[in-house]
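Problem: given the chain below (422 residues), write out its structure.
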Amino acid sequence: MTNKITAPETKAVTGNSEDVANAFDEFMIAFESFRETNDERLAQVETRVGADVVTIEKMNRINTALDEQKILMDRMILKNQRPSFSKDNGQGNIQTMAMVEHKNAFNNYIRSGKENDLRSFEEKAMSYTSDPDGGYLVPDETASEIGRRLAQISPIRSVAGIRVVSSAMYKKPFAITGPSTGWVAETAVRPQTAAPALSELQFPTMELYAMPAATSSLLEDSAINIDQWIAEEVEIAFAEQESAAFINGDGVNQPKGILTNTVVDEGSWAWGALGYVPTGADGDFATSDASDTLVDTIYSLKAGYRQNANWLMNRRTQADIRKLKDADGNYLWQAPSVAGEKAMLMGFPVLEAEDMPDVASDSLSVAFGDFNRGYLVVDRAGVRVLRDPFSAKPYVLFYTTKRVGGGVQDFDAIKLVKFGTA
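Solution.
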């Protein structure tokens, strides 16, 4: 008795595990029928009568069906082994096929200058920030890595509020005067409240650039991770320029820094200016009860801001403060308890920013506040790279740009220490 073998049924090649298993079962059934028929043919040959024509035809049909079944199964297995439209990159991040395509095209552009694939990808993706004359967007993973590294290096960025926008300007409305409120009895008529008066803060994004150089041998080395190399090369340059601008930027072609805002004595503070607490001595802390200035600065900040407050100063100012003691003889500055943590000053973390000024006459050398609510960093989505193999032969330059803005968004969240008498 032999099995009836027919050609495999035509079906969609889905490649899922169940279909592959079924195809394999059908293949094995066909193969078993092939073996039985072949055994029959061999037995006929051994009788010296010769193989029956019907048996030979049957075997040929089974053989053909077996080949077709094997082809179908191979297609299913191949389909199952192809990368799906989303996959894990091993770091818990899902990569779409578009992301993989972008990364491969970017890699070819950086290594060899082949831009057709990258140009085609950006045209297909209709990227709002692509600009072939000014460079090409780096893959999202690389842009995210650059942002992560900047947050680790830049002291202000590590604690400031951050917004990512797709336009050149971020506008934030705020209420100058809130709506009128009051107490009222349960059944009394509710008077109409006054509408709030609104104003608007604007944060334009400015172009920040770095220009790392590479040798041809580095670009030809397939072991070099180009994405990582780009991120590492630009992170320090970006962080140094950002840190300087976030503190002392004048707002012209760069973010507006904390210290370039109008400052007034805390007793005369009004919205639109930063309040300061004077030390009472010109270019120094007061000779007696120096810690009182720091205490006054802490409590000039409202309780809601103090919960997330940090000190901001450079290392030389920190060295001066490190020498101060309270009335009981305890040092105000405390070293970190474990590696990687921040030093503490009167119970609040200390951020070290080299762009803060040294202690001098009327200098604003110390800032204190909730910088997450007080200062806003605006990043325009996308980092661009333009490959330049001509300007510095034999080196290849990579003109890397990102657009960044920033400014104070809550003038009540940051206070300053002024080393002066008033």
